[in-house]
Amino acid sequence: MIRREFISLLGGAAAWPSGARAQQAERTRRIDVLMNALENDREAKVRFEAFLQGLRQLGWIEGRNLRMDYRYSAGDPERGQTYAAELVALAPDVLLAGGGTSVPPLLRATRTVPIVFANVPDPVGSGIVDSLARPGGNITGFMQFEYSLTAKWLELLKEVARDLKRVAVLRDATITPGIGQFAVIQSVAPSLGVEVSPIGVRDVPEIERAVTVFARSGNGVLIVSGSALAVVHRDPIIALAAWHKLPAIYYTSVFVPAGGLMSYAPNITDQFRDAADYVDRILRGEKPGDLPVQAPTKYELVINLQTAKAIGMEVPPTLLARADEVIE
Question: For residue 160, what pLDDT band results from cuts at 50, 70 and 90?
Fold first, then answer.
């Protein structure tokens, strides 16, 4: 009897390593997410679902081998800092930063937990990473664009509004991307004979007052540069541009189906889907600082012809021919 029990124990011991490996492979991992949008924002939901879809395709299923916690800061720096501290305290395996304003509070909260970001403008210029090829530290991800892209927005507006003399740039001056994007537009404006004015996006009354004053002088256009607050206030911004018949270009395509005139930007939803691959690689042992920051390989021009007609503007056929999507 003792001999049989001893043999049984030996058999169990021999089988233990493979069983332990299987158990380890299926152990629950934790991903915490800080988004810079409103929780009920429709586009934020689309992007986050793309991230979840990417994880599922790689075998990470919430409720089976994955646990997730979410916070939405709506572009509020204080709320972002509070939420970042909360998420780090939960001891996640990886953090996902959705948007540029989500990164600084997470980096202040931890320099050890791996961070993957998506939809972040110019991470090198913002001081987030050392370089695109070797980001270093505990962070890597997917770049929205470099600040130099903002010059293209002004050039495109010049094509649709040839008498353009004045441009108002809606920007968040409290964040590095807001400063960097505006600086590029300022630098190229003299060569195009354009005067540039900044408009803050802190709240809707501020935007309404400034845009109304700007529109009175005529021959003006709007550039909506990248910021979480611009997305939070996107419906009032689009309505103001339509009311004052101001041609406007936006830093992301989500504005255009809602009535914005045009955008020139990468596909951000794809970045969130691709971020799942980086999260998977980190969960399997790779270091974020060794994974290169990926830049967009394509920028899409989207034009809303209904909006163009509503504000009495004719889009040149040459520009329509270059568009990736035309909303009619």
Answer: very high
Show the 3-state SS of the chain. Answer: CHHHHHHHHHHHHHHHHHHHHHHHHCCCEEEEEEECCCCCCHHHHHHHHHHHHHHHHCCCCECCCEEEEEEECCCCHHHHHHHHHHHHHCCCCEEEEECHHHHHHHHHHCCCCCEEEEEECCCCCCCCCCCCCCCCCCEEEEECCCHHHHHHHHHHHHHHCCCCCEEEEEECCCCHHHHHHHHHHHHHCHHHCCEEEEEECCCHHHHHHHHHHHHCCCCEEEEECCCHHHHHCHHHHHHHHHHCCCCEEECCHHHCCCCCCEEEECCHHHHHHHHHHHHHHHHCCCCHHHCCCECCCCCEEEEEHHHHHHCCCCCCHHHHHHCCEEEC
Of 16-20, 63-67, 159-163, 319-323, the range with the lowest mean pLDDT is 16-20
The whole-number pLDDT of residue 9 equals 43
Provide the whole-model pTM: 0.86
- The whole-chain average pLDDT of the chain stands at 90
pLDDT above 90 for 55: yes
Both 41 and 186 in one domain: the answer is no
- Its domain, for residue 272, covers 28-144+267-290
Residues 6+ apart with CB under 8 A from 131: 124
CB 155 within 8 A of CB 177: no
Residues 85, 89, 95, 97, Cα dihedral to 10°: -10
| pLDDT of 218 | 83
Count of domains forming the chain: 2
Q: Are residues 179 and 310 in the same domain?
A: yes
pLDDT at residue 312, as a whole number: 93
Check pLDDT > 90 for residue 187.
yes
Instruction: Identify the CA nearest to 71 among candidates 33, 109, 118.
Output: 33
